[in-house]
């Protein structure tokens, strides 16, 4: 069965969760009316990178985000990979992805494992340490966030755990657009899965962001790619292509894990 994807490549209002929340409600409504099966949001869509004000603006325990996205996925009968939000907990702040199925049930939660020093995440955030595995309907999925795609061991771990679709919410800067595209396609080819990457558009006081959300098939072929402007990127995929590519070149059964034990 083919699936319709909608990636919401939005600009994010710096440090203004209420404005971002209103935009997310409107964009999810628009994507749902295009008959999307899965809607994807970018990284830190509630606050942007206004990290020094997290105490004031991060979502306490993610409660507001979870309530909103549960309601929207149920109302529109659509799976939502809700990008990530800044979350405030008793043990500090996290950059956390949530996923909800069409019934409005929370399917997954993942906190960014590799913190990006160039954007001061290591100063303000705590790192997650659990993999982001979840199921939408009967689709085995994984989520990682932005800088995480530079760590092939981490995405390989998710593929070895059975994921066939990788979701990547991001706030990736324009300055390294070439890395973004090459890393995403490489992660797709080496793990023979779909890569569904939703970046933000626009800029904040410190960075201009690249946009260029993209969807790659398990062969590394780009199915859809956005430009740099705010948009909703639509793409159609056939999840059965994963099994077909994995049987054509059987890298998982050809692996030699006994050779890969440097650490
Ligand atoms: O790795 C990069 O070049 C960008 C990463 C990034 O912007 C992030 O993790 O927020």
UniProtKB/TrEMBL annotation:
It comes from the Bacteria. GO terms for molecular function: hydrolase activity. Pfam families: CN_hydrolase. InterPro entries: C-N_Hydrolase (IPR003010), C-N_Hydrolase_sf (IPR036526). Belongs to the carbon-nitrogen hydrolase superfamily. NIT1/NIT2 family. Residues 3-239 form the CN hydrolase domain. Keywords: Hydrolase. This is Carbon-nitrogen family hydrolase. PROSITE patterns: CN_HYDROLASE. The keyword Hydrolase applies. CDD domains: nitrilase_5 (cd07583).
């Amino acid at each position: 069965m083919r699936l319709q994807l909608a990636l919401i490549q939005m600009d994010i209002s710096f440090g203004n969760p209420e404005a971002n929340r209103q935009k997310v409600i409107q964009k999810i409504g628009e994507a749902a009316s295009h008959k999307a099966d899965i809607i994807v949001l970018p990284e830190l869509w509630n606050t942007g990178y206004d990290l020094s004000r997290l105490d004031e603006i991060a979502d306490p325990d993610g409660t507001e985000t979870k309530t909103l996205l549960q309601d929207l996925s149920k109302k529109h009968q659509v799976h939502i990979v809700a990008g990530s939000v800044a979350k405030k907990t008793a043990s500090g702040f996290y950059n956390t992805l949530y996923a909800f199925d069409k019934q409005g049930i929370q399917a997954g939660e993942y906190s960014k494992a590799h913190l990006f020093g160039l954007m001061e995440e290591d100063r303000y955030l705590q790192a997650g340490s659990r993999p982001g595995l979840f199921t939408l309907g009967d689709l085995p999925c994984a989520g990682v966030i932005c800088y995480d795609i530079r760590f092939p061991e981490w995405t390989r771990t998710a593929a070895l755990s059975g994921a066939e679709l990788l979701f990547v919410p991001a706030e990736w800067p324009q300055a390294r657009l070439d890395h973004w595209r090459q890393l995403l396609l490489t992660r797709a080819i080496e793990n023979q899965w779909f890569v569904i990457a939703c970046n933000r558009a626009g800029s904040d006081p410190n960075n201009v962001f690249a946009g260029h959300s993209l969807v790659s098939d398990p062969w590394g072929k780009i199915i859809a790619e956005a430009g740099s402007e705010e948009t909703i990127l639509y793409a159609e995929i056939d999840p059965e292509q994963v099994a077909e590519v994995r049987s054509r070149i059987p890298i998982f059964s050809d692996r030699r894990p006994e050779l890969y034990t440097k650490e």
